[in-house]
Amino acid sequence: MAPNSSLTFNVHRKEAVLIAPAEQTPHEFKRLSDIDDQEGLRFHVPIIQFYRYNPSMKGRDPAKVIRDALAKALVPYYPFAGRLREIQDGSRKLVVECTGEGVLFIEADADVRFEQFGDLLQPPFPCLEELLFDIPGSSQVLNAPLLLIQVTRLQCGGFIFALSFHHAMSDAQGLVQFMTAVAEMAHGYLTPSIPPVWSRELLEARSPPCPSFAHREHDVVEDTKGTLTPLDDMVHQSFFFGKCEIAALRKHSPPHLRQTVTTFDLLTACLWKCRTVALSPDPDEEMRITCIVSARGTKRGLKLPEGYYGNAFTLPVEISTTDKLCKNPLGYALEFVGI
Fold it and tell me: pLDDT tens, 255-279?
């Protein structure tokens, strides 16, 4: 039984099965990069997507279409069908043993129609545990499947696609690349339009490390003085900023940034300032803002090849005191977060 604030429905799941690559793949060990195997990425990320009925799918079972396409995509992306191991040398370095065992797949049916969800299709979605069943042991870091997919058919012909993937294997962009390959296989492609590239050695740290400046994102903050809220003590709520809200915020930007500042920078600066005001920390308390910055593309100078699907991002930090964030206008925070 899956409850929501105004909707209740039942989900009937079949037993989970392992989907192996459609063809034989190499059995080998592949090292992850030093970005991949950070302690902070050793977890599984849930994703859920809702699809309306498409007349082109008449007479076709979405679960079977996705299942067959997944097996084909796992041939070029065979590391996803393996298992993570730790090198037994005290370093805890992660490697993928490409065993070809496969990924977990669950087929399900729900007695609900797409349109019944109405305005409920926004995070946080309280029925996630019914639409992405947590198979005992499947969320372990080591020796467990790296992907879990559940396809739930709806009464209207639409379906819900839910996925959990191990973050050490890919970032969001890498996962999108893989799922695009699955979609292409479903449309009859013989090979992905973008061939996957492993090349994790490109993001290995130098030995010994040679940092050229202080990386304050790695500071150990002993006492946050109540400015760090535990994840299990947070209230999750969605806020939507449309054209009117963004225009209102833009009016608070300094004239030289008003027309060029991005929506992302504008919202980030606003949230950083507003959160600081709401928490009311000590005036001299350091307040931090961290944003994900991609290492892909020509601007970064790393020259990662097209098709690279590992983690390729960093988390730089900006720091200001409470007093300056609260007393200065929004433009002060914008100058920090603007790239």
Answer: 988 888 999 999 999 999 999 999 8
The contacts found for 291-295 with CB under 8 angstroms, 24 or more apart, are 291/315, 291/316, 291/337, 293/339, 294/173, 295/203
pLDDT digits (tens, 9 = 90+) for 299-319: 556 789 999 999 999 888 999
125 pLDDT above the threshold of 80: no
Q: Is the pLDDT of residue 49 over 70?
A: yes
Task: In the chain, count H helices and then E strands.
Answer: 7, 15
Q: Which pLDDT score, from 0 to 100, does residue 270 have?
A: 94
Residue 59 token pair: 């007479």
Which H or E run includes 109?
strand 103-110
Q: What residues have CB less than 8 Å from 281, skipping those under 6 apart?
A: 225, 226, 227, 287, 322
- Based on C-alpha coordinates, what's the Rg of the chain? 23
Beta strands in 255-328 (DSSP E): 286-290, 293-294, 313-314, 317-321
Peptide bond just before 124 cis, omega within 30 deg: yes
169 contacts: CB under 8 Å, gap ≥ 6: 32, 36, 79, 80, 84, 96, 146, 310
Token representation of residue 137? 């042991």
Task: Round the average pLDDT of the chain to a whole number and report it.
Answer: 90
Which amino acid makes up residue 316? Answer: P
